[in-house]
Design brief:
mainly alpha; Arc Repressor Mutant, subunit A; 2 domains; two-stranded antiparallel sheet; 12 helices; 2 strands; 73% helix
């Protein structure tokens, strides 16, 4: 239930936003559920419709709700997109460079490989194996190879049993999706062969529950892909609208 907003410490908009976030995150509303009308929310919160409208606008910016013209305000599913989209904007605006993401990803993926080796269940291993088998398919397209590559890393993150690793890994991999795709287009055969080689070696160590071995194999994989990623990132820069001016 919404409570009347206090006029101390925070602005009315901030307090209204907090109350609405509590409603959304507390399980009272499920994804797809319709929120009360602006008028009703204003009455519940003891604020004007203008305040409610601004609070809702901020919730839309956070990805917690969506407005549908002529229909109302609806709760959205909370997931990794909420992390991916801000990171993607920073990357596309060149506030974040590819090297920044690669540097963080190298630390994260090594830890993920280690935890996956320690914690992976049979179902996790089977899911990861499927991504490698998908890459071995003859005449695989660049988009299919990229999807399988991302699936491998996301599968490892899931195998840690820690949702935070999954969210962070998926978010960074989604931001790098275009670079992944470009690398497979640049040299399709070599890129796929290299990925299958490294992914298979990492999975072997995960299957053996060899933590240190999994870390070493992931480090080797990331070292091999670092220069390739930088080459593709440089090409992206050259092809960007800013470079053409």
């Amino acid at each position: 239930m919404l409570k009347t907003v206090s006029r101390e410490q925070f602005t009315l908009v901030e307090r209204s936003q907090q109350q609405l976030e509590t409603l959304l995150l507390g399980g009272s509303l499920r994804p797809g559920d319709r929120l009360p009308s602006e008028k009703d929310m204003g009455q519940m919160l003891g604020v004007s419709r203008t305040v409610v409208r601004e609070a809702v606008r901020q919730l839309v910016a956070k990805g917690l709700v969506e407005t549908r013209t002529g229909s109302g305000i609806y709760a959205k599913k909370i997931g990794s997109k909420m992390v991916e989209e801000p990171m993607s904007l920073l990357f596309r605006s060149h506030v974040l460079e590819a090297g920044d993401i690669v540097e963080v990803r190298e630390v994260l993926e090594v830890k993920i490989a280690a935890l996956a080796a320690a914690r992976a269940q049979q179902g996790d291993i089977e899911a990861i194996e499927k991504t490698i088998e998908a890459m071995k398919k003859s005449k695989i397209s660049a988009s299919e190879a990229s999807e399988a590559d991302l699936g491998f890393h996301n599968g490892l993150a899931m195998a840690t049993g820690n949702l935070m690793f999954s969210v962070l890994s998926r978010s960074m991999n989604e931001v790098m999706r275009e670079l992944h795709l470009a690398s497979y287009r640049l040299d399709p055969v070599k890129s796929v062969e290299t990925s299958v080689y490294h992914h298979s070696r990492i999975l072997d160590r995960v299957k053996a529950h060899d933590v240190e071995g999994a870390k070493r194999e992931m480090e080797a994989h990331l070292a091999d892909s670092r220069n390739w990623t930088q080459r593709v990132a440089e090409r992206f820069k050259q092809d960007s609208p800013e470079t053409e001016r």
